[in-house]
């Protein structure tokens, strides 16, 4: 892959966070894992790009308070102490109130031949319910990558510094929100009760996040969230579940070669109604009218031949 940029963003974290991160990297290296690739997915505006920047410790991904204008995923790679972290930031999957299938298709093609170790599914902690749009997004991801992708999932809840509404306790609030989203994911992925829990992590990307005495960013429940988040990533990458290789088969679907064949009877039927029958009619008309000009059926025959050529090339593939 050539030389990867040094993960120098670690240096800007407080010393205690740097120590914790180096400890985690040492831990994965011990398990013979020397790289991981993290795919970041979710609706627009939930804090995907901000979270990428927070982990890398650099402004690598453009953050926008408004709808992002790009459909293109972003691949960021950083190395430190013999370990390479790859993160793929993606555009939001919703547009005009619907799942943007084109965006998912672009993401899939962008990922060709890459192996995904962790999927960060990002949403806001302060979303107040799981609605049909959330389910649509989860369903679309399942459809695109297969239900197995959720075995690599780490749910990330941003805006985690916000106080819970109506004086509820912070921990109850977090539990409710995470359980709601995880239940939807498990349902859409067809998880059984015996399937393992999907982990989650809390994130506060705001520069105004509270800090502890060591200058590390902390949440209302005291969690030092940067090392906690990276720890969860490491947990997923070292779980027994295999990573996901995005290959041709996954991109085009298991029945890609057969899918075209389904159309053949339909094409033949259309051919009959659009070409053969009109030709017959035209011939009948010609006979009736006994015209001298180029008979209409000749142009129909041209059309018929070109349609046949199209079909032949379609069948040939
Ligand atoms: P994306 O569309 O999912 O990539 O979301 P962005 O990272 O571009 O963030 C959208 C907006 O939310 C920006 O204005 C960010 O500054 C803001 N934002 C993202 N994460 C957080 C967070 O954890 N806390 C707060 N307060 N704002 C956030
Ligand atoms: Mg973004």
From TrEMBL:
<dbReference type="InterPro" id="IPR005688">
    <property type="entry name" value="Toc34"/>
</dbReference>
<keyword id="KW-0547">Nucleotide-binding</keyword>
<feature type="binding site">
    <location>
        <begin position="64"/>
        <end position="69"/>
    </location>
    <ligand>
        <name>GTP</name>
    </ligand>
</feature>
<dbReference type="InterPro" id="IPR006703">
    <property type="entry name" value="G_AIG1"/>
</dbReference>
<protein>
    <recommendedName>
        <fullName>Translocase of chloroplast</fullName>
        <ecNumber>3.6.5.-</ecNumber>
    </recommendedName>
</protein>
<keyword id="KW-0812">Transmembrane</keyword>
<dbReference type="GO" id="GO:0046872">
    <property type="term" value="F:metal ion binding"/>
</dbReference>
<dbReference type="InterPro" id="IPR045058">
    <property type="entry name" value="GIMA/IAN/Toc"/>
</dbReference>
<dbReference type="Pfam" id="PF04548">
    <property type="entry name" value="AIG1"/>
</dbReference>
<comment type="subunit">
    <text>Homodimer.</text>
</comment>
<dbReference type="GO" id="GO:0005525">
    <property type="term" value="F:GTP binding"/>
</dbReference>
<keyword id="KW-0813">Transport</keyword>
<keyword id="KW-0150">Chloroplast</keyword>
<keyword id="KW-0653">Protein transport</keyword>
<keyword id="KW-0934">Plastid</keyword>
<feature type="domain" description="AIG1-type G">
    <location>
        <begin position="33"/>
        <end position="254"/>
    </location>
</feature>
<keyword id="KW-1002">Plastid outer membrane</keyword>
<dbReference type="GO" id="GO:0015450">
    <property type="term" value="F:protein-transporting ATPase activity"/>
</dbReference>
<feature type="binding site">
    <location>
        <position position="67"/>
    </location>
    <ligand>
        <name>Mg(2+)</name>
    </ligand>
</feature>
<keyword id="KW-0342">GTP-binding</keyword>
<comment type="similarity">
    <text>Belongs to the TRAFAC class TrmE-Era-EngA-EngB-Septin-like GTPase superfamily. AIG1/Toc34/Toc159-like paraseptin GTPase family. TOC34 subfamily.</text>
</comment>
<keyword id="KW-0378">Hydrolase</keyword>
<feature type="binding site">
    <location>
        <position position="159"/>
    </location>
    <ligand>
        <name>GTP</name>
    </ligand>
</feature>
<keyword id="KW-0472">Membrane</keyword>
<dbReference type="GO" id="GO:0009707">
    <property type="term" value="C:chloroplast outer membrane"/>
</dbReference>
<feature type="binding site">
    <location>
        <position position="49"/>
    </location>
    <ligand>
        <name>Mg(2+)</name>
    </ligand>
</feature>
<dbReference type="InterPro" id="IPR027417">
    <property type="entry name" value="P-loop_NTPase"/>
</dbReference>
<keyword id="KW-0479">Metal-binding</keyword>
<feature type="binding site">
    <location>
        <begin position="45"/>
        <end position="50"/>
    </location>
    <ligand>
        <name>GTP</name>
    </ligand>
</feature>
<dbReference type="GO" id="GO:0003924">
    <property type="term" value="F:GTPase activity"/>
</dbReference>
<feature type="binding site">
    <location>
        <begin position="204"/>
        <end position="205"/>
    </location>
    <ligand>
        <name>GTP</name>
    </ligand>
</feature>
<keyword id="KW-0460">Magnesium</keyword>
<dbReference type="GO" id="GO:0006886">
    <property type="term" value="P:intracellular protein transport"/>
</dbReference>
<comment type="function">
    <text>GTPase involved in protein precursor import into chloroplasts. Seems to recognize chloroplast-destined precursor proteins and regulate their presentation to the translocation channel through GTP hydrolysis.</text>
</comment>
């Amino acid at each position: 892959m050539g030389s990867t940029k040094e993960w120098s963003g670690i240096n800007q974290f407080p010393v205690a966070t740097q120590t914790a991160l180096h400890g985690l990297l040492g831990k994965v290296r011990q398990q013979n894992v020397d790289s991981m690739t993290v795919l970041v997915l979710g609706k627009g505006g939930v804090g995907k790009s901000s979270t990428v920047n927070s982990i890398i410790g650099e402004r690598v991904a453009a953050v926008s308070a408004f709808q992002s204008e790009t459909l293109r995923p972003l691949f960021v790679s950083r190395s430190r102490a013999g370990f390479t972290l790859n993160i793929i930031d993606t555009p939001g999957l919703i547009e005009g109130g619907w799942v943007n299938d084109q965006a998912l298709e672009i993401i899939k093609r962008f990922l060709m031949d890459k192996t995904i170790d962790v999927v960060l599914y990002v949403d806001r902690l302060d979303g107040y319910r799981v609605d049909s749009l959330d389910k649509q997004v989860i369903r679309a991801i399942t459809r695109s990558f297969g239900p197995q992708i959720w075995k690599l999932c780490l749910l990330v809840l941003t805006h985690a510094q916000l106080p819970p509404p109506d004086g509820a306790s912070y921990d109850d609030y977090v539990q409710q929100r995470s359980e709601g989203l995880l239940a939807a994911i498990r349902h859409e992925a067809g998880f059984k009760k015996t399937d393992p829990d999907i982990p989650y992590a809390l994130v506060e990307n705001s520069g105004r996040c509270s800090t502890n005495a060591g200058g590390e960013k902390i949440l209302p429940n005291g969690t030092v969230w940067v090392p906690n988040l990276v720890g969860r990533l490491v947990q997923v990458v070292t779980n027994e579940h295999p990573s996901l290789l995005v290959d041709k088969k996954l991109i085009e679907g298991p029945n890609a070669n057969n899918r075209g064949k389904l159309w053949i009877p339909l094409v033949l039927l259309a051919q009959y109604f659009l070409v053969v029958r009109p030709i017959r009619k035209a011939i009948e008309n010609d006979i009736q009218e006994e015209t001298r000009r180029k008979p209409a059926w000749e142009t129909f025959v041209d059309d018929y031949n070109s349609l046949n050529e199209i079909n032949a090339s379609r069948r040939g593939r």
